[in-house]
Amino acid sequence: MVIAVDAAGGEYAPHEIVKGAIKAAHEYKVNIALVGSKPILHVLAGRYLRKPGLSIIDAGEVIDFHEPPVESVRTKLDSSIVVGINLVRDGAAQAFVSAGNTGAVVCAALFNLGKIEGIQRPALCSVLDITRSKPVLLIDSGVNINCRPSHMVQFARLGSIYCRQILGTDSPRIGLLSNGEEETKGNSLVQKSHQLLKKTNLNFIGNIEGDAIIKGVADVIVADGFTGNIVLKTLEGLGDTVVSSLQHLVQGTTKATHVQGSALLHLVGLDSWAKRVDYREYGGACLLGVNGNVIVAHGRSQAKAIKNAIGLAKQTVEQGISQLIKEESHG
């Protein structure tokens, strides 16, 4: 298995990307193709290039976060994002991981990989490991701002497939994010989507409110990309605040107790919760519905998050997610 990694994308590229890729190659036993400036990556990867499992694919251009996605993908053909997606298209890599411009990654995937037949709108499916039991999925978490009810039903089907294969849930509970549990609550999109979801063979449990997300009421949470992205960013912001607050707490208490930081967190029972609200633990979101495996990592991903995003990519490939979506879409 070869996983292409965008070594030029993200706030901490290329140093942290390379570090995470090296860790992933060692831990997951996968072949990593670093995509970016060859001279720079040669220096950073150094002696690791003499070992099997790590290679460099040259890409002389970078698409920055502020650049318009469509125009950038069409004009910067030698960018790390376009080159990486093309590796998947040409069969040279089985997955692509990027912490770069999300819009550009999605556009490159749509232009160069194409949608799976039968799929109206690809969607980002994010893993939220914030409940007491097991992770839940949020779809769409940022691609489709304006949606139709039929799109929402398809998001539910995509999320259900991913949940079964990645999280091992036999009959995932599908919840539609709304401002109330009643069928009559929500805007026109939510109300119409609710009626369509009731008619499917999915395990649809109805509308769920925002507070139910962290209670594990549903295994798959369905939302339009606008709402889903706000939810995702809010949870990530909460995670940053909690982790930062705990670090300050630990620093202040450690001096008095002489117990080291991580040990103190464990002592007061906050270590596992701190991990659950830390986006670095789950790595990234999978773009479902395109002809290939694409993982979008957080723009602020450092080595740990990149390593976990590569692990998620490996799992996505091994479970044959794209093929399953093709089969179920045609069925």
Describe the structure in your own words.
With 331 residues, the protein is of the alpha/beta class. It has two domains: 1-119 and 289-320, Isopropylmalate Dehydrogenase; 121-279, Isopropylmalate Dehydrogenase (3-Layer(aba) Sandwich). 46% of the residues lie in helices and 16% in strands. The chain contains twelve helices and eleven strands. It has helices at 15-28, 38-45, 69-75, 80-89, 102-112, 149-167, 188-198, 225-257, 261-267, 271-276, 303-318, 321-330; strands at residues 2-6, 31-36, 54-58, 95-98, 123-128, 136-139, 173-177, 203-208, 220-222, 284-288, 293-297. Strand 10 (284-288) and strand 11 form a beta hairpin. The longest helix has 33 residues, at 225-257. It is globular. The model has no long low-confidence stretch (mean pLDDT 89).
Overview in brief:
This protein is an alpha/beta fold and 331 residues long. Helix content is 46%, strand content 16%. It has twelve helices and eleven strands.
Count of distinct strands: 11
Q: Return the string of H and E elements.
A: EHEHEHHEHEEHEHEEHHHEEHH
Q: Strand share of the residues? A: 15-25%
How many distinct helices?
12
Number of domains: 2
Stretches with pLDDT under 50, minimum 5 residues = none
CATH superfamily of the largest domain: Isopropylmalate Dehydrogenase
What is the molecular shape? globular
Overall CATH architecture of the largest domain: 3-Layer(aba) Sandwich
The CATH topology of the largest domain is given as Isopropylmalate Dehydrogenase
The CATH C-level name of the largest domain is Alpha Beta
The whole-angstrom Rg is: 20 Å
Percent of residues in helices: 40-55%
Distance between the termini: 28 Å
- Helical/strand content category: alpha/beta
Question: What's the overall average pLDDT, rounded?
Answer: 89
Most strands sheet:
11 strands, mixed
